[in-house]
């Protein structure tokens, strides 16, 4: 699913109005009608509804919602924030329509003292600003936003299209923004919903389709995308009935050190469960028995070093590996750094680089330029900062992420609630599977194994990152559904990977 900017959403509205028999006022009726229907599905008329409207089209939506709910027997009070003498044409039109039958329910808000006392069970609808937000809210208008937020413990707050105060595609943290329980957003996800710094604002997002013109959606390029099942279906390739183990590649996993062999086991199991044909694991001597006993399906190469991997660069001279994954539990010994440097000089195909391998690159930044094109880096935010430096805010970090992926011609997976996958062509895909149960040691090691397993089967790096991150989160969601977010561990993500292949695509 494409994620459009606020400017593109305005274009999509205008395109729809120009190419379909619908006016802007009609489109507003349709959008607000979807909101009203959602509200009626979720709340009965015993709940008094308090709608706060701005003077733009978001306010217009609020006025239509007010009329429709009143028509259906709800008690509604609609306050209009008079922060500007001017209103949009459709807002004026919808105000007239509301006042025609229900003028006694409408009042003006010109200061915080006009904020109403809310009865028990009241629902707050925030229709003050939508995608037209162009600057932080100030003065008494900001005061009204704060008063709305003060009601959060007692009343449900529902934002129309966007929480008022939030800008669709720019960072504006530390400003007055509605903290909604639900956001009913039209047609598309907005970039703002996917940023960590905006976590307090949108609440649960429901996307309501309003029939924007499909030609605009397919023809307009977008920089940001949200991964979905449709994309996975175009990527996934069922196995060939005549396949043999050579068909799906020989993967090499370089992982583990004394005290961190678990990371290597998790990656190895995940790599095999993702479908690799053969897997060899390069481990330090202390890890030999552990790996052989824990994972009989994997072969084992033992380092000369008893505790660390320091001689793995030699492996690539003997076997024609299809994919290499490096990093989980690796440690950052000088010998490991040397061997990594040699490996990067001799290996030219895409590889998966995670955890301590990323930390080594942070310490020896000249290695960045030696990463083979098409490789996959999987940093969490701290590792990302160590690699590429700090960012002022989430949108700045997103720009940095994309810039680095383009300039190094690699894929960078910035892990989190909505993992962001930056591609060498500048596109960024957000992933929506996964849950906080995955915030547990070893989850990232599992992802590295899955990605290595997919690369070894000849999935392109782009296909591997999109499918791998999706399946990893999907398996995590299945694990959480069966075990709870608290009780699930990284091992359970691997256990549910099979079901994720069956049900998630
Ligand atoms: N045909 C359409 O264009 C449709 C638009 N829709 C609604 O329209 C919304 C966008 O409407 P608008 O573009 O009118 O924008 P908004 O309703 O978001 O408000 C923008 C207005 O507020 C002013 N403003 C922006 N930031 C401000 C601030 N910090 N302090 C004070 N004033 C500020 C702007 O100058 C402008 O007049 C969408 O979010 C959606 O709710 C929907 O009705 C669907 C159809
Ligand atoms: N709240 C969350 N929602 C969705 N996914 C999450 C959440 N917390 C963690 N994850 C996922 O779990 C993985 C954790 O990776 P990482 O921090 O590297 O773990 P580790 O180093 O312990 O293996 C990432 O893929 C991340 O996207
Ligand atoms: K709003």
List the SSEs and their pairings.
Layout: E1 2-3, H1 6-19, H2 24-42, E2 49-53, H3 57-71, E3 76-81, H4 89-102, E4 106-109, E5 123-127, H5 139-150, E6 156-160, E7 182-186, E8 204-208, H6 214-219, E9 224-226, H7 229-235, E10 250-254, H8 261-273, E11 278-283, H9 288-294, E12 299-302, E13 323-326, H10 334-346, E14 351-353, H11 355-363, E15 376-377, H12 381-388, H13 394-408, E16 411-414, E17 420-422, E18 428-430, H14 443-456, H15 461-483, H16 490-495, H17 497-503
Parallel strand pairs: 2-3, 2-5, 3-4, 5-6, 6-7, 7-8, 9-18, 10-11, 10-13, 11-12, 13-14, 14-15, 15-16
Antiparallel strand pairs: 1-9, 16-17, 17-18
Helix pairs in contact: 2-3, 3-4, 8-14, 11-12, 14-15, 15-17
Bound molecules: ligand NAX, adenosine-5'-diphosphate and potassium ion.
The site of potassium ion (K) has 11 residues, from β5 and β6.
Subunit structure: Homotetramer.
Cofactor: K(+); Mg(2+)
Domain YjeF N-terminal: 9-218
């Amino acid at each position: 699913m494409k994620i459009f900017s606020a400017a593109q959403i305005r274009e999509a509205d205008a395109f729809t109005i120009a190419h379909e028999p619908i006016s802007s006022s009609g489109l507003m009726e349709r959008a607000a009608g979807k909101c009203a229907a959602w509200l009626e599905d979720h709340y009965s008329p015993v709940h008094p509804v308090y709608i706060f409207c701005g003077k733009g089209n978001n306010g217009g939506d609020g006025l239509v919602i007010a009329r429709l709910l009143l028509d259906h027997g709800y008690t509604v009070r609609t306050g209009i924030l008079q922060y500007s003498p001017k209103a949009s044409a459709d807002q004026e039109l919808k105000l007239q329509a509301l006042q025609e039958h229900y003028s006694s329910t409408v009042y003006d808000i010109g200061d915080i003292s006009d904020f109403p006392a809310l009865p028990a069970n009241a629902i707050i609808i925030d229709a003050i600003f939508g995608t037209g937000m162009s600057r932080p809210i100030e003065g008494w208008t900001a005061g009204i936003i704060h008063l709305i937020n003060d009601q959060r413990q007692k009343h449900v707050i529902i934002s129309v299209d966007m929480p008022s105060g939030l800008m669709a595609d720019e960072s504006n943290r530390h400003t007055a923004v509605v903290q909604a329980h639900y956001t009913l957003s039209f047609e598309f996800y907005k970039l703002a919903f996917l940023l960590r710094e905006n976590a307090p604002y949108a609440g649960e997002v429901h996307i309501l389709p309003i029939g924007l013109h499909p030609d605009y959606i397919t023809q307009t390029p977008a920089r940001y995308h949200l991964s979905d099942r449709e994309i996975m279906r175009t990527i996934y390739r069922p196995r060939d009935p005549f396949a043999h183990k050579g068909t799906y590649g020989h993967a090499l996993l370089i992982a583990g050190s004394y005290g961190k062999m678990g990371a290597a086991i998790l990656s190895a199991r995940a790599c095999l469960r993702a479908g690799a044909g053969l897997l060899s694991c390069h481990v330090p001597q202390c890890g030999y028995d552990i790996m052989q006993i824990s994972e009989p399906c994997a072969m084992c190469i033992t380092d000369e070093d008893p505790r660390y991997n320091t001689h793995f660069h030699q492996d690539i001279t003997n076997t024609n590996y299809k994919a290499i994954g490096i990093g989980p539990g690796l440690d950052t010994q000088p010998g490991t750094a040397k061997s990594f440097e040699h490996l990067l000089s001799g290996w030219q195909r895409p590889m998966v680089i995670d955890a301590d391998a990323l930390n080594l690159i942070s310490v020896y930044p000249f290695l960045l330029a030696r990463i083979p094109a098409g490789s996959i880096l999987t940093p969490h935010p701290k590792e990302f900062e160590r690699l590429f430096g700090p960012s002022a805010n989430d949108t700045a970090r997103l720009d940095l992420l994309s810039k680095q992926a383009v300039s190094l011609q690699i894929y960078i997976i910035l892990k989190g609630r909505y993992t962001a996958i930056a591609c060498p062509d500048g596109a960024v895909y957000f992933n929506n599977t996964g849950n906080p149960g995955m915030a547990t040691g070893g989850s990232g090691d599992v992802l590295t194994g899955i990605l290595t397993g997919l690369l070894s089967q000849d999935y392109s790096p782009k296909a591997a990152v999109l499918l791998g991150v999706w399946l990893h989160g999907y398996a995590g969601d299945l694990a959480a559904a069966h075990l709870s977010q608290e009780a699930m561990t990284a091992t359970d993500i691997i256990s549910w990977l099979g079901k994720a292949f069956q049900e998630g695509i």
